[in-house]
Amino acid sequence: MYKNLILPLLTCGVLLQANAQNAPKSADKPVEMSRTPDMDRTVTSSHQVTIKGVNVPYKAYAGTIPVWDNEHKPIAGVFYTFYERSDVKDRSTRPLVISFNGGPGTSSVWMEIGYTGPRILKVDDEGYPVQPYGLRDNPHSILDVADILYVDPVNTGFSRMANKDVDRAQFFGVNEDIRYLAEWINTFVNRYNRWASPKFLIGESYGTTRVSGLALELQESQWMYLNGVVLVSPTELGIERSGPVEAALRIPYFAATAWYHKKQPADLQSKDLEQMLPEVEAFTVNELLPAIAKGSTLEDAKKKEVAAKVARYTGLSEKVVLQYNLNIPFDFFWKELLRDQSFTVGRLDSRYRGIDKQDAGTTPDYNAELTSWLHSFTPAINMYLREELNYKTDMKYYMFGPVHPWNRNGDHTGENLRQAMAQNPYLHLLVQSGYYDGACDYFNAKYNIWQMDPSGKLKERISWEGYRSGHMMYLRKVDLASSNENLRTFIKKAIPAAGTPAKY
Predict the structure, then answer these.
(1) Which residues form the signal peptide (predicted)?
(2) What CA–CA distance (Å, rounded) separates 428 from 227?
(3) Crossing angle of helices 413-423/442-452, nearest 10°?
């Protein structure tokens, strides 16, 4: 896409001769850097930030730690940034939060400079890009109560395999990813002497698949036990929901989006979002799911009655709902809801609007929200790591890296997390969802919890929270404050009083 930006080379001979006479002295030349992957290098710097009115001094570590093969040779360098509060005398009680994003194939940039880190990107109050690009201090960061490690899996961020001969398959799959990262976390904990610290994992999107699997893998292969896991905009976690269940569970998200864009009838629009949604959720479970399951045996009158309710909640026409036999695809909804206004709505955050080449069709041309986010995050993370944290390299920072094909076989991560919680009475779970997230929607996140804990024996250690934004709910100023505060509360709650035994 950038080939038209390459300058013609016909005049290079003249330009080179002229420039040679005015070449800068060696002292003025840029520092020579390399695109050779780093396996083991760290840069340290000191900073401070004001969080909730209190000055918090901290050290930032930016670098790579190797992944080793069975012969103890480095086969990859995993890039990380680690923020450690520097005025803490006793780290044995200091919580350690280990943070991942998802994709698979994306780095930890999103939560690092968008959510929990001490520096966050400049966006407007709703999360839209602004220029000039840059960062500002995060007054809501959880660094006041916990040290934070952000990890970029192989082929994301600055993380790379050691050479072209390394077998890609050992990194790029559900369980492959979990296994090598568990080993890597062990190395990190050893290097930074954090075995005594209460430990938490937080993952966003596919990162929730990753940390759900890591909770059990760390216990079973590294003998490392956690105090908490946080799932931000969780995936399906390998929990089966095909057929009528999959079709029905979309409706509450559709209803939230329709409410936001004022496409519902006046009586629903007059209600607050969180007053309206319980009615839709009850309809979804008690009426829509059985109706879809009945298929051709559903009476015509009942089908029309259910379709009318679906239309009422989703802002679509009854005719369209019937044409789809009550099973509305996500893509069609994003294209159809604002078709009369010549807009599409975003997949990851349906507050965002897009414009297509033509209003006709069943699928938006692009994801309006992701384009917006890349617009603001990409300059900020490159400026931050290279200039503020002084990590010098010529390597490209992969916002999305080459990790496919990805082996999705054997995804039992929801069950892995349940088993880890059953085995570890200390382990707590917090789930955070945006009501306007259509990729990892909030009602499917609730369904995860119901199916992970069908007996209800873990419910005292599980909590769910909803926010009035999308996949990255923290980009909205109001939600940035409340979601970080909820994390802060969760961390404190998940750490038992000194001497409390881990037993049932």
Answers:
(1) 1-20
(2) 6
(3) 50
d(CA 215, CA 196): 17
Q: How crowded is residue 13: how many other Cβ atoms within 10 Å of its Cβ?
A: 9
How high is the pLDDT of residue 9? 30
List the one residue out of 477, 361, 488, 486 whose CA is nearest residue 114.
477
Which of 226, 238, 157, 235 lies closest to 194, judged by CA? 226
Residue 341, classed as helix, strand or coil, is helix
Kindly report whether the peptide bond that precedes residue 405 is cis, defined as omega within 30 degrees of 0.
yes
Name the DSSP letter for residue 132. S
Q: What is the DSSP letter of 93?
A: G
181-211 per-position pLDDT tens digit: 999 999 999 999 999 999 999 999 999 999 9
Tokens at residue 219, please?
């216990």
Residue 146 one-letter amino acid? A
* Of 343, 313, 347, residue with least CA distance to 441: 347
Predicted TM-score of the model (pTM): 0.93
Do the beta carbons of residue 200 and residue 225 sit within 8 Å?
no
